[in-house]
Design brief:
A five-stranded mixed beta sheet has the order 3-2-1-4-5, sandwiched between helices. It has two domains: 121 residues, Nucleotidyltransferase, domain 5; 33 residues. It is 54% helix and 16% strand.
């Protein structure tokens, strides 16, 4: 049985592989119960160009707790300012397998909408998978209904 951490890392690996194929700068997020961390990686993924977190002294002084949306927004603005200072205008957001919700969403909104433009990648697998799965199940049912196994039953039911 796969636990939550392994599932998250599997989801993160898929998004990171796609970002690596596109050779673009990546804004990665990591969250713990007490803090949230953001790092901007180079296009090849070998260097950390900028970083910000709630564990930094300047951020700790401005927010009472590092484990809420307000603190994540402060970190998002801070990482965006640092990236702008380095001349980075576009990044691919790597949510590291976390849901795009709560603190992760607050950080992304503060960073990507204020200073740095998102690259426009659709790397969130939740919404498309739901729609595609629903279509797939309808198509599967239709194929099963029109296949020989059920068609023989319908024909025999009509002839009687």
């Amino acid at each position: 049985m796969i636990d939550k951490r392994q599932s998250r890392l599997r989801r993160a690996a898929k998004a990171r592989h796609k970002i690596h194929e596109l050779k673009c700068v990546r804004l990665a997020v990591h969250r713990t119960n007490c803090h949230i961390y953001a790092q901007v990686f180079s296009a090849d993924g070998t260097k950390v160009l900028a970083s910000a977190s709630t564990a930094e002294k300047e951020v700790r002084g401005s927010v009472p707790s590092g484990a809420n949306k307000n603190a994540a927004a402060v970190v998002g603005k801070r990482i965006a300012e640092k990236a702008k200072g380095l001349g980075i205008n576009e990044v691919a957001f790597d949510r590291s397998g976390y849901k795009y919700h709560g603190r992760v969403k607050a950080l992304a909104d503060a960073a990507l909408l204020d200073e740095v433009r998102p690259l426009g990648l659709d790397l969130d697998p939740y919404e498309p998978r739901v729609r595609r799965g629903a279509r797939r199940s309808i198509a599967r049912r239709w194929r099963a209904w029109t296949s020989g196994r059920f068609a023989a039953r319908r024909i025999s039911a009509r002839s009687s």
